[in-house]
Design goal:
about 180 residues, five-stranded parallel sheet, 5 strands
Length: about 180
Amino acid sequence: MESVSLRRLPALAILLLALGAPGPATGREGASVVQPDYAEPRVLFDFFFDHPAKIGPALYWLRGLINPLQDRPFNMDPEFMDIVVLIHGTELVTLARHNEQQYQQAVDRMRYYALLGVKFRVCGLALEDFGYTPEDLQPFVEVAPSAMTELAHWQQQGYALITPQVMERRVPLDEIR
């Protein structure tokens, strides 16, 4: 292994090492925990999946945003988080009232998030493609003209776009830890 010359280290790093400060990779410490000063989020989640069951894992992305911000030190109230979920893939069938029993867990989770103030929007064009009407959907859902107009609208309003990637785990965690 090649040794690092002191001439190659920045002056601040040399000073910190001389004062006894731990280096960035000493192997003795764990990762440092940061506490950013987050603003209340304005987020648009774009759901477009090739299988309806993928909505379940995608909803964990909402949890990953909301739950940490509700906890200390942020203590944000979900009512003040502006979150929109745009649905325009095969997961749209999970919102059909006649499919509620089949997708009960996902529907219950979406209903819970809707009570927290999350807006669930469905693409009107996709709704037609699936042969549904607004009356066929859960009452917490809003129908927008199209997913593309919604994507443009919310981003123009300053919302951050998050597009969940739902992967299939092919290797058990115990094998790769």
